[in-house]
Amino acid sequence: MQTILVTGSTGNLGRAVVAALATGGFQVRAAARDPGKLGSHPGVEPVRFVYEQPDTHAPALSGVDGLFLIAPPLDPEAAAKLNPVIDLARRSGVRRVVLTSALGVDAVEEAPLRRVERHLMASGLPFTILRPNFFMENFSTGFLAPMVRQGGIWLAAGDGKTSFISVEDIAAVAVAVFRKDSPPRECNLTGPEALDHAEVAAILSRVTGRSITYHALTEEQMLENFRRAGLPEGAVQYAANLYRAVRAGHAARITPDVEQVSGRKPMTFREFAQRKAAAWR
């Protein structure tokens, strides 16, 4: 039985990957800053892991077969944090690294996650890079959830469309990658449709029976909201770049990679909203 270390295990994606691997027959080492938040689950061993504390890295990596690597969200210093972990994984005998990056970063060589991708590619380790689009779960348990509960979505996304993807579909791809002898090296992961935020708000309104409205902000209005919410300036500027890409249409791409790798069709946003309706009531 393979043992897989999953970083960021208390986040939306990390929790989904831990659950999918554990139910899929893997032994999972769930890494988190505060492993006490993970609870107790069959086949899952919580371990302490903090990117800024290198002394926590070697114990977490010891004896694992695979590494599922998630960067801290909106982190302009991702390369400085993840690249040493990749190097240690190689020295520790890890047999495969699966890196979660982001859709489109391979077109921007100076992007923080692209620098991590390049480092992994040059490491000599067997690897797969997953580049998912924006998570649907941002609306249910992520940073957009409080807005939706207040009846709105306030963003500088313009009328740009996004092929939102559920973390459950990303997790299914992760399981398939660790099972395959020769998995793909790069996967661009999207949902089956591209929606603008007005369309998202309309779906949420129908599912919840409440009026939820998209409010198109200017970029500066959105960034000021993020600053008032306490985001560090580096994360604020990172978010600015993401939503510039949305407004420019770069997030509308739809790919077949989820189904090709996992064997299942990715869920639609309506299916996601129906499953998660209780989050907004």
Quick take:
The chain has 281 residues and is an alpha/beta fold. Helix content is 39%, strand content 15%. The chain is built from eleven helices and nine strands.
Word description of this protein:
- With 281 residues, this protein is an alpha/beta fold.
- It folds into 2 domains: 130 residues, NAD(P)-binding Rossmann-like Domain (Rossmann fold); 117 residues, Alpha-Beta Complex (UDP-galactose 4-epimerase, domain 1).
- Helices cover 39% and strands 15% of the residues.
- The chain contains 11 helices and 9 strands.
- It has a 7-stranded parallel β-sheet, sandwiched between helices. A two-stranded parallel ribbon has the order 7-9.
- Helix 1 crosses helix 6 and helix 7 runs parallel beside helix 11.
- The longest helix has 15 residues.
- The protein is globular, with a radius of gyration of 18 Å.
- It starts with a strand and ends in a 6-residue tail after the last helix.
- The mean pLDDT is 96.
- The best one-word shape is globular
Number of strands: 9
- Tell me what portion of residues adopts beta-strand conformation: 15-25%
Overall residue-averaged pLDDT value: 96
Q: Can you tell me the CATH architecture of the largest domain?
A: 3-Layer(aba) Sandwich
Q: Superfamily at the CATH H level of the largest domain?
A: NAD(P)-binding Rossmann-like Domain
Widest beta sheet: strand line-up: 3-2-1-4-5-6-8
**Spatial extent as radius of gyration:** 18 Å
Gap from first CA to last CA: 41 Å
Stretches with pLDDT under 50, minimum 5 residues: none
Can you tell me the CATH topology of the largest domain?
Rossmann fold
Succession of helices and strands: EHEEHEHEHEHEHEHEHHHH
What is the count of distinct domains?
2
Number of helices: 11
Largest sheet, strands/sense/barrel:
7 strands, parallel
CATH class wording of the largest domain: Alpha Beta
